[in-house]
Amino acid sequence: QIREHHRKVRKEAKKRGHKKPKKDPGVPSAAPFKEELLREAEQRKQRLEELKQKQKLNRQKEHEKKRKLEAKKNAAKIKEKAEGKESSGKSKAKTNKLLDKNSKKSFCRELKKVIEASDVVLEVLDARDPMGCRCPQLEQAVTCSGEDKKLVLVLNKIDLVPKENLEKWLNYLKKEFPTVAFKSATLMKDRTMEQVTKRRARVDLSRTTECLGSKCLLKFLQDHGRTQNKAIQVGVVGFPNVGKSSLINSLKGVRACNVGLARGVTKSMQIVHVDKQTKMLDSPSIIADPSNNALALALRSIIDTTEESCSADVLEGVDAILNHCSKQQVMMHYSIPDFRNTEEFLALLAQKRGMLKKGGVPDVENIAKILLCDWTGAKIRYHSQPPGSQRPPPYLTEDKIAKMQECFNLKNLEEENNNTVQALKCPSPASSIIFQSAGMTNGTIEENKVVEEASEWENLETGQEGEEEEEYFTESDDDQDDMEEEEDESKAQVTRKAKLGKRQTSPPNSEKQIAESEHSTSLSLSLDKTADEDDAYDFNTDYV
Fold it and tell me: What residues does the CP-type G domain cover (predicted)?
C-alpha cells in the first residue's frame, strides 16, 4: 500500500510538471582547476559557519543585557517600595503643598484669616437673589465672635433688578444689618497692562460701566474708622461670582484684583490699600455645603465647567434653575418654542445658537455650561421677592442687631442709597424673569469639616499602595510557588487516602468520633473534589 501510494504521488507530480531536484554532481574530475574550486567552496562554507556563530553570540549577548536590565529594574522597584514607606510622609506633604492652593481646605483657611483680621466684614450679595447669597454660618461666626466686629451687607449688581424690587430688598435687609446698594464698575483696565491689538470678545457697551455706590460705601467705612480712632481693615466675603474682587477694584479705581467669569479666581487673601485709613482684604469664596439643594449648589458652589466630569452636575443645575423660573418668561427671553423638559430646552437653544456636533447633533453639555455661566454672571436679568414676614434667624437677637448697627450713621446711609437708586437705570419688571429663591445657602467655614473628605482620599491612596505591593511580591514569588505546589499536591493526596482509610476502619460508636469525622470531611471537601471528579489513574498516590 505504501509503495502504491508513493507511485500515485509520483504520477501526479509528473502530470503537474514537478520533478525531483537534481543532485549536485560536483566538479568533474576532468575539469581544470578542480582543486582551487573545491578550496573556494570550503572557504565559503567556513565563512557562513563563522557568520552564524557570530550571530548566535550577538543574540546571546543581547539576551544577557536584557536579563541584567530586568534584574536591575526589579531591584530598583524593591528598593523604591522599601524606601517608599519611609518617605511616603514627605512625598505626600510635598504633593499636598502643591495641591493645597486649589483645595477647599485652603479656601476655608484663607477665609478664616480674613474674618479674624478684619474689623468690618462686608458680605456681598447678588441683588437678584440676596437671600440665596446669605450664609448663616458666616453671619453667626461674625456676630458671635465676641470681638467688636461689624457685619455690613452690600447689594451688588443692582442694575439687573427692577427698581421696586430693589427698594423692597433694601427695606427688608436694613432691619437686620446695615445694607449698602452698590453697582461695581465693569471693563476696569489695569494701568500696568500693555495695550494688545488682538481680537477681543464682543462686549455689550449699552450697559453703563460706571460705578454707583462707591462714594457712599467709602464714606460709610471712613466714618466708622474715625469713631474707632484707628486704621480699619475691611474683609470682603461672599459666595462665588457675587462681585467681591470687582467691588474692591471699583473702590480702588484700578484693577487691583483678578476678576473673571470662572468661579474661584481668588484663591488666597489679598490686601489692597484704598487709602491711609482703610485696607481692603479680598478673600476666596465661601464653599457651599453639599447638603444644600440642587439650586443652591448650581448657583453658589465652585464648579469647574472646563472639566468633563462635571457635566452631570451642570445639567442638574440647569434643571433646578428652570424649575424655579417662569416657563413663559424663559421662552420669551431665549425666543424658544414650548419645551417638555430640560434636555429639549437645551437642544432647542443649541440649535438656535449653532452649537452642533458631528451629524447635526445639538451640543447639550456645552450649551448647559454657557447657560450656567450666564446665570451666575451679570448677563441675565432676573429677580426674587423678599419674604412676606420679617423672621430673623435664631442667632440674630435684638441685642446683636443693635450691636451691629452701633457706631454707624444709618440716616446718611439711607439718603445715599436713595440717591444711588434714583441715578440707576433699572430694567422694567416685564423684561426681568421672576425667580423663586431657595432661601439661605449653608456654607463650610471651618477647616475641620473639609478634612474628612481629604482623609478618605488619603486612605484610598494608602489602600491602593498596599494592594500594589501585594501584587508585586506575589508575582515575584510565583516561580517558587509553582515548584512547591507539586510537592504540596502529592502530600495532600497521601493525607487524603490515609484519612479515608481511617474513616472506613473506625466504627461510629461514640458521638465524639462522629463529630470529628464530620469536621475532617468538611475540611477535606475542597481537596477531595479533584480526586472524586477526576476518574483518571493517579500515579503519584500509587507510587507512594
Answer: 108-289
